[in-house]
Every structure is written in C-alpha cells, then in structure tokens.
Amino acid sequence: MTAIHDQAMHYIYQQVLERLLSHMSQAQRASLQLLIQRLLVAAGGPEYIGSFRLQILQGSDRQSLRLLAMLRAAQLSIALRAPATFQLRVLAVSLPVAGSTTLEANERSFSALFMQDDPRVDLQMIEGGTVVPFSRPPSAAPERWLQARDAMLMFGHLVDARPEALLGSRLHLELAGAVAFALQAEAPADALVTVIPAFQRRRYLAWARRTLRLAGERGPYGVHQCLAALAHGLGRLHCTVSGAQGGLVEPTLGAAPEGATVRLIALDDLLPHLLEEQQLDAMLGCGFETASDALPLAEFVNSLATAQLHELHARTLEPQASRPALRLTGQVGGSKQRDAHQLQLGKAYGINQTQLVCLLFSPFARQGKNLERFLQYRHADMLVALPYLHRALQGKPCPDAVKAWLVNTSGLPLARLRMIYAGQLPLAAWRLLDNLAHRDVHLRLLPHQALGRRRDFVGLP
Q1: Are residues 252 and 337 in the same domain?
Q2: Which of 55, 205, 249, 272 is geometrically suited to a Cys-Cys bond with 243, CB 3.0 to 4.6 A?
Q3: Tens digit of pLDDT for each residue in 98-151?
Q4: Is 259 found in the same domain as 201?
Q5: Are 78 and 49 in contact (CB under 8 A)?
Q6: 3-class DSSP string for 148-175
Q7: pTM score over 0.85
Q8: Can you list the positions of beta strands (E) in 277-320?
Q9: Do residues 216 and 341 both lie within one domain?
C-alpha cells in the first residue's frame, strides 16, 4: 500500500512540475536550471541535497510568490533526478496581522503548488510574534497576541503613535524575533533564500547593527557570518521593547545559535524577471497586488491595516462637529462589512476602536500634556473629571470609576499608564525606542518636521 501511495504522489508531483514549467517563460526556465545548480553547490553536492534545508519568508506580494514557485519547481525537478531533494520551510508573514484576503491568497498558492501534504515542505505563519503552523482561518489563541498588543500600545503611548512609526521599523524587530524562533527548530535551516536587492540588504544590515550597538548588544551579527545570530540579536531587542514593564527585561529566546551557521542565499541577480507580469500568477491564483511599485522591505507588512490606521488617524484629529463619516480604505459595501474590516487590526490584538483612537492621541505621556485635548475631541463628558484623571495617573486617591475609565479607554493596566505618565523608563530603553521611531517600515528617515514634534512629546524622564 505504501509503494502504491508513493507512486501516486510521485505522479502528482510530476504533474505539478509540468504545469509549473508550462506557465514559465523561456527566461524563467533557464534561470530555474541555474537555481538548481546554485542550490546543489550550496548543499555541498548532490549527495547532500537530501539533508539540505531552506527557509523562505513568504511576503504578501507577487515577487515572493514567484520566488516560492521557482523554489518549488527546483525542489520537484531535483526529486525527479535524484533519490532525494531539499526540505523547504515557508514562513508566511503579514504584519502586524494577516487579513483573511492574504491568508486566502496564500492558501490558494500553496494548494496550486501541492505543498500542504508534502512531507518535504513545512508551512508556517506568524501570530502575535509567535511561529505557528499555517492555517486559515487562524487559530483562536488570544494569549499569543498579548505581548505584541502590549508592545504596540506602549510604543504608541510612550514614543510615537503615528502610523509610520507605529507600523514602521519596530515591526522588523517583531519579524526578527519570529525568524529567530523558526531558525531554532530541532533541525534548523541551513540557509535563507531571498530576492531582496543588495542595496536593500545593506540598508537593513546597517540599521540592524546600529540598533544593536545602541542597545549595548555585542556579537557576530554580520549576515556573512550567521543569519541566525543576527535574528537572535534583534529578537532579544524585540523582547526588550515588548517587556512586561516596557523596559529592559530578560529575553524569552533561547541561547544564541552555535555550531553550523545559517547562510543567506541571495537570488536577486538570478531572477530579475520576477518583477514582470507572468502567466505564473494565473496558475497560482495570485490575489496580491502588483509588485512593480512595491518596496522589498514592506512586503511583509499588511498594507490594508496600515491604510486603515492612517485613515483613522486623520479622522480622529478633527473636531467631532466637522468629522466626516469613517470610510475605510479599500472597502465598499454595507456598514456591517465596514465594521468587520475596521476592527481587523484591533480584533486580533484585542483592542477596540476606542482604545485605538486613544492610542493615536497619546494623551497620557509627559504628565498628560494631551489629556485635556483628547477629552475635548473624543470624551467631552469627562472634562469635569480631568483633575481626578490626573490624580489617578499620579497614583493619588481617586474614585474607582475614574480608574476603570482609564483602563477601559486605553486598554492598559493602571500601573503602566502611571509609568507612561511619569516617563519612567531606563535611559537605554528610551534610546532604543526613540531610534525605532526615527524610521518607517522601509527604514527611511521620517520627515524632519515630524521628528521635531516627536522629540517634543518624548523627552526624557
């Protein structure tokens, strides 16, 4: 029975490969042969390819999807010629939270490539900074989002609540922490494959090294030395900024990787045509946006969540009398459908819209400098309780109803609100958080005018 099953699966994999090749251009098929040769050399020769393990980060763009298709074609091609082929681990990434559309697109692509039942393929995804098996719909485990939720709320209230900073370079630490966990598997990957251009890789490495030095981390964080060491170092910083008190805490990652290194295999020079329109997209059921205008470092970020947060941010800063109705970017249809998408970001994190609006105002930092303005714009009925709100944030006696309002409106415990109010963070944590707020998700510097306003809000305790 096993032999019959293996023969049937072999026939199915051969059909998948033939279908892939039929949808490739001549340039892609030529590049596929070069890719196979490069992977055989990286493995140490054909006799070692069966134990060679590749890791790939699957972003929400067509370029990532086409790279996955090429690697799958290489895996199946080698399997037809040799007794064994390499193992492929796919980590689907869409931060801060993967929407249903993204998960559906990934599932269609995995099914078209017949990867879900192949023991040589391991499909994973990120939920709240934790690596879990890929599934659609995602598993209901609210505790997985607690750390990511607290990290986002604390960062927004303490440092910078603008969408560019909130969903900016800070997310690279979250991704690095997840990659570090993925690379610490019982049988770790030997190499990570990417098509990110060389200048973008250099920019990322420079940002990573600067951030690690600023936080006092020391270690061999060069990609040419070990990718796992770099991911582990950045993962430690992610644990720092998302600690229980928002300050420096002991990391939850395991020990730094030792022994065999995890290499980086860059294929941007080998597969430049991945940016072009291809018949391959139709076969894969691609539901992603065109990648011609996409920036590589943003391919792991949920663009819809970013756009919705931008719209909510612009709307909340207007007085209630002149505020237009909220129309979520990219959504048409009834109010129930809009509400469902509106809470997409907050629903996963356990944050309602009131708490998101509070986050965007950041009313508690610098001894509540923006608190009165926040009440005037969003909670005019609480203006009479403004003195009691300050007393509660200062740790002085006040009515329990006032304390409950603060907790329900912000989504944070009163102890953390008091820490935000007083600005009680170690200087090293302030420097790290402030450095993260300097750059957006593309690692580009934010506008100088915005930086000036942010420095005025942060200050030092």
Answers
A1: no
A2: 249
A3: 888 889 999 999 999 999 989 999 999 998 888 999 988 766 666 778 878 888
A4: yes
A5: yes
A6: HHHHHHHHHHHCCCCHHHHCCCHHHHHH
A7: yes
A8: none
A9: no
